[in-house]
Amino acid sequence: MAQVEALAGGGTTNEFDRDTAVTPRPGEPGSFDAVLSAGWTIIAAVNGGYLLAVLGRALREALPHPDPLTITAHYLTASQPGPAVIRTQTVRAGRTMSTGQASLFQTGEDGREVERIRVIAGYGDLDALPDEVRTSALPPAMPSYADCVSSADAPAGGPVEGSTAILDRLDLRLDPATAAWAIGMPSGSGQMRGWLGLADGRDHDVMSLLLAVDALPPTAFDLGLKGWTPTLELTVHLRAKPAPGPLRVSLTTRNLAGGLLEEDCELWDSADRLVAQSRQLARAPRG
Amino acid sequence: MAQVEALAGGGTTNEFDRDTAVTPRPGEPGSFDAVLSAGWTIIAAVNGGYLLAVLGRALREALPHPDPLTITAHYLTASQPGPAVIRTQTVRAGRTMSTGQASLFQTGEDGREVERIRVIAGYGDLDALPDEVRTSALPPAMPSYADCVSSADAPAGGPVEGSTAILDRLDLRLDPATAAWAIGMPSGSGQMRGWLGLADGRDHDVMSLLLAVDALPPTAFDLGLKGWTPTLELTVHLRAKPAPGPLRVSLTTRNLAGGLLEEDCELWDSADRLVAQSRQLARAPRG
Questions:
Q1: How far apart, in Å, are the Cα atoms of B273 and each of A9, A72, B205, B270?
Q2: Cα distance from B2 to chain A (closest Cα, Å)?
Q3: Do B190 and A240 touch (CB under 8 A)?
Q4: Among A176, B7, B47, B158, which residue's CB has the most CB atoms within a 10 Å radius?
Q5: CB-hemisphere CA count at 13 Å for A218?
Q6: What is the ipTM of this complex?
Q7: Do A117 and A71 form a contact (C-beta atoms < 8 A)?
Q8: Out of B118, B134, B253, closest to residue A257 by CB
Q9: How far is the C-alpha of A281 from the C-alpha of A177, rounded, in Å?
């Protein structure tokens, strides 16, 4: 465990670093062991953003550059809390950017390895990028942190049945305009907005942005649908390191059709910088 | 050649099907030969959307489902016109969806294979999806096809230096509001809109949508930048088969920062259906 904690950065014991830690597997270069924590489950599944962060940390160890500039995950089978192995491949190592691939496997009941997730990513060094910012996007209009609704105040009997463990790890406050689904009054606009920190006070960094893009309730709830909204594919562009403090997270769905929907996410930091953009393709709930 | 034309579909000889044809390599299951055509080059490069369509056709042959619902390409090294081999892998074959991976290689001057592009994709059957459409997105507001500007009418001396061969394959008409960069008056809004057909009259299908998301001039031109805007990563969600007729294509950039920019693309068909959404991460031109 000492090794795991050292990898997690200076002996910190915050929940996110501890639960996304990866350990090089002796004798297997590019392979890493991890333990998926039950603390990041929602309904019946391990959260997809948390899983992406575990894979992101393995690729950070394997590649010559530290930061995922663009990372795409395909969710193949349902991950379970418990041991996992991540196998990475360096596809190309360039001067300013490297490309890597990683797969997360777990051992099934029959003793055979099952691939859970496959990721391909381009890594670079965010600190080495030019300073110029010409962003025309504007931060989401939403009430202050104090005027948003804490998930701890949510009434029972919402559309979520099953684990809500991840909510204990998050400091999540939803914009009331996108939270009324919890009392049976979805707005129908397909939006979700909120402030997002980590419950133990750890500030965001590049790896926790991978969690943040998939940490809010699905926009499907705001469309009046209930139940599990499994992510098929998730692509995140990380564009800057976040300033300290909670993020403003904005999710939008504009194309619910054919039983599928996209979820576009923007993450804005306390310095009004658009630090990440993501899009996922998900299967719409049946409800 | 007879085999290639047969694969291209019923002996058709339209340019797109001919130039994206793939031929199974004898004795190497899952491997396909292709010839990248110089007819789809722009500036000094083979167009990234055309390349994605070549890979998309190889995965269609290799996987049990016909349509790429979500496909992500990482552009590793610059493709050249000429022979290429595509090697595919079936990652997972499910009932309604399968996941595949493919890499396109070319042989370098030293006789060694160089990987040009790596793709991961989820394939399904668009015809088998439920009919329900609850899209809240609206088609882009733009003038009629007749009132847009044909690329054949573009003045010389624009920001493009080098090949414009791809323009001879396309029936592209830009919204005048996003075309003034061609006369040195970029709007600065980071948008590009136009009508897009194929010059030989072939109607769009699923595979040509992969071309269409990367076929317009880059939004960087509308931001006043000049030169090559190389795509690092491109993800396309295909949501419906297109109705006949030219597509309306809308490109938007909202986050030019750190020398990188995103390009969001929507494709709308003649039946006002949002048939594809894509996002790419590209390197901003130096100009």
A1: 49, 26, 14, 7
A2: 35
A3: no
A4: B47
A5: 29
A6: 0.94
A7: no
A8: B134
A9: 24
